[in-house]
Amino acid sequence: MEPANPGDGCDLAVSAASWRKAFVRYLRGGDRLPWMETMSGQIQEPHSGGPLGSRFLLAREAMRRQMLVAKTEHRDVALRHLLTTRPKFHSPEGGGLECWGLGPGPLQLITNTVSADSLTLETGAGLSTVCFAIQGSEHICISPSPQEHERIRAYCRGHGISTHRIRFVAMPSELYLPTLELGGRKLDFALIDGAHGFPFAIIDYFYVNRHLRRGALLALDDVDWPSVGVLHRYLLTEPAFEFVRFIGPRLGVYRKVGETHISGACQVFNKKRNYSHLPLWRQVRKRIEDVPALVKSYRTLVKALGLQMDET
Ligand SMILES: C[S@@+](CC[C@H](N)C(=O)[O-])C[C@H]1O[C@@H](n2cnc3c(N)ncnc32)[C@H](O)[C@@H]1O
Question: What's this model's pTM, rounded to 2 decimal places?
Answer without folding.
Answer: 0.81
